[in-house]
Give the backbone structure.
Amino acid sequence: MANRLTAGCCIVGGGPCGMMLGYLLARAGVEVVVLEKHADFLRDFRGDTIHPSTLELMHELGLLSDFLALPHQEVRELKARFGDIEFIFADFSHLPTHCKFIALMPQWDFLNFLSERGRLYPGFRVIMRAEATDLVEEAGAVVGVRANTPDGALELRSPLVVGCDGRHSLVRHKAGLEVENFGAPMDVLWFRVSRKPGDPAEAMGLFEAGHIFVMINRGDYWQCGYVIPKGSFGEVRRRGLTQFCAQLARTMPLFTDRVGELASWDQIKLLTVAVDRLKRWYRRGLICIGDAAHAMSPVGGVGINLAVQDAVAAANILAEPLRAGAVGEGLLRRVQKRREFPTRVIQRAQVLVQERVITGVLGQREEIRPPLLVKLLWAVPMLRRIPARILGIGIRPEHIRTAERPAAAKPGGVWQK
Ligand SMILES: Cc1cc2nc3c(=O)[nH]c(=O)nc-3n(C[C@H](O)[C@H](O)[C@H](O)COP(=O)(O)OP(=O)(O)OC[C@H]3O[C@@H](n4cnc5c(N)ncnc54)[C@H](O)[C@@H]3O)c2cc1C
C-alpha cells in the first residue's frame, strides 16, 4: 500500500521553476511539497545564468547579498565572434535594476540556495529521489500525484498540482494537455575544459562556418556548449573523438593545449533542444509552468529567467487561494494569461534566430559574415541596451507581491501508511 501525504500544494520538479515556486508559497504560509526525481541538484543542468530580473527578485526578497556571497562571475556585456571579428551585442550597464549584470552560477548552487532558504519556513518540504509517475484524479479533477520514492510508493494529495517538471514533463503528458511544437534545428554538446591563468574572463559565443561554440567562465574551468545540427550526434561520434577535439581546437585555438582533456565521450553530454508550448496550461486541480508549459531554446539563455518569472506570477495569483485551500480554474487561467504573452514573444524571437542565424551558420561552408543586426549593434553602442533589456529583464517582469507569513498548518504534511 502506498504511503499517503497531504499538502496545500504539490509541485512536481525541483528545477528553477519548482524551487522558486516552492520557496515563495512556503514563505507565504502555504504547506508545499516539491517532488524531485534526482538525489541532488549536482548534475549538469542546462544553463547557469541568473539574470538581472531574477537578481532583482532576490533583492525584493531580502536575499540578494547572501546570494551574491556564493561564488559567481558577473557578466556586464555579451560578446560574439563572427569569423575574426568580435562584437559586443548587449550592454547591461544601463538597466534599471540593482544588479547590472548576469550572474553566472552553477545551477545547483542556485537551487541549493533556494532549498536552504525554503527550509526556514515550516511549510516547505522537498522530497528528493521522488519521481512522479501518475496523477490522481477524481470526478474529472486532478487531486494529487503518485510517485516512487526510496521509501516506496507515495500518493500525495493536494488541492493543486503544479507541473514544473521541465521539457519532457510527465505531468503535462498525463494531464492530456495539448502541445504545439515549433521545432529546433540544433542540439548542444555540453562539456568542460580547464581554465588557465591569462585566459579571458568573459563568456563568449563563436560563430564560424558550420560551427557555433559557447564558452562560459566557471572559475577554474570553462563550461562549453558546442552546437550541432539536430540529430547529428551519432554522426559526430562516428567521426571520432580525435576529430571532434581537432575541430574544437580549430574553432577555439585557445583550447589547443587542453582538448586532450576530453578523453572519452562520457565527458560530453548531449542536450536536446526543443521549443514548444501548451495550448492550455491547466485543468481542474492542475497547472503547468516553466519548461513544462513552454520548452525554451537555449538561444539568448533566458529559459531559467522565464521559468522563475512564471513561478513568481503563479505565487502572486495563487498563494492566498491556496492558503484558503481552494483554487478554481479561473485563477489558473489568470496565470496562463499573465505569462503566455511574454512566453510567445520570446519563443517567436528564439525561433527567428534559430531559422535566420543558427540554421544558416551550421549549414555555411564559406567564410561567415556577421548579420546586419549585429553590425548595427557594433556601430551604434546605444542600441546594445535593447538586447540587454530583453535578455536581462524580459517582457512583463514580475515582482514579489506575496507577503511573508508563517505556515497556517503543521509542517510538511502528514505521512500515513
Ligand atoms: C542546451 C540548453 C542550454 C540552455 N542554456 C540556458 C541558459 O544558459 N540560460 C537559461 O536561462 N536557460 C537555458 N536553457 C533553458 C533552460 O534550461 C530551461 O528553460 C529551464 O531550465 C527551465 O526550468 P524549469 O524549472 O521549468 O525546468 P527544468 O530546469 O527542466 O527542471 C525540471 C525539474 O523537474 C525534475 N523532474 C522531471 N521529471 C520529473 C518527475 N517525473 N518527477 C519528479 N521530478 C521530475 C527534473 O529532474 C528537474 O529537476 C537551456 C536549454 C538547453 C536545452
User: Anything to note?
Assistant: Residues 12-18, 35-38, 46-47, 49, 131-132, 164-167, 170, 188, 271, 273, 290-292, 296, 298, 301-305, 307 surround flavin-adenine dinucleotide (CB under 6 Å).
